[in-house]
Amino acid sequence: MALGWSGSNGRVSKKVLDLDNFLLKNPLEVSYFVNNKCNLNCKHCYVGYNQKNGELSFEEWKNVFNDLINLNGLTFGNVGKEPLLSWDKTKRILGFFYEKRKEKQKLRFGFVTNGVLLDEAKIKELSELMPNYIDVSLDGQKEEHDYIRGRGVYDKVVNNLRLVNEINPKLSNKIFISSVLMKHNKNKFKGMINEVSNYGITHFLFSPYVKSEKDKTEELSLDLNEIIEFYKRAIDGELFNSRKDLELILKNDYDTLKPVMDRCAQEKIIDVNNLLIDEYGVIFNKYNSRGGSAIINYIPTSDTFSKEIRISHDGFISNCYAQFFENYPERTEVIGNVKNKSIKEILQTYLIH
What we know:
The chain is α/β, with parallel strands linked by helices and 353 residues long.
């Protein structure tokens, strides 16, 4: 029986790590929902879980995060549903991480937002807290973005990005424009990049649309060949407009985009023989082209619960994909709830089994 890539590897090691050491081995990436509500009704929203009640309090979040930091949690992202709708709680959580980062300099934190509610008061408060990143959603230029998120949304978001740069250019450097790659916008990003890069924004992230249970059409979905073609154009520098300070990130995910990663490896878009890994355990290739740089990540095997976890607004622990479904709490990917057990107990129980 082969126990490793090269055969038996001389059996398993006699030095067996306990669960605490196993959990401490890799830096954990934690994504969490501070709420399950949004001010928009986007066509491509993947969240099928509709329960809006039962939010964890700030004190409950603080206890969970302290446990995770003790288990080597280093990356904490508030991913939903719209953090700015719960600004008081979001601000307190960001303040908690701000203080923790003083003790643990490698700790990083941020949030994802549609950007509509990013007003002057919040920008000034964020300037004091200075999160490591703010992901702002833009799905192309005005026509493409508003088709997905509603009339007038693009102009509101771009005006808010301009305001950030006017109030604090250093905060603009923390903004990542996060775009969902879809059929109607696959050729429409160059103008958007050109416009918002005038406001001190240099980071752009692209993630292919993944069809959810609620989507009954195919109007948004790209086929595999179209995704690969976009990745090739991005790596070749087609989107850069000759700007040399721009960075594009092509984001892959094991649970939902493994066929994309496999095809990228097959076509050498991902060079598995020359992969890099950063101090947070992210595996990637980096390409420099005629404009700036392009990064594409690679996840060779599922790292759910050993490296990354998702926490719902009401305390359930799962991977990201489980939230695609309305019956989220009953799904096998959900391994517990922090209202019933500590996060450490939940992870240990799962890993033992």
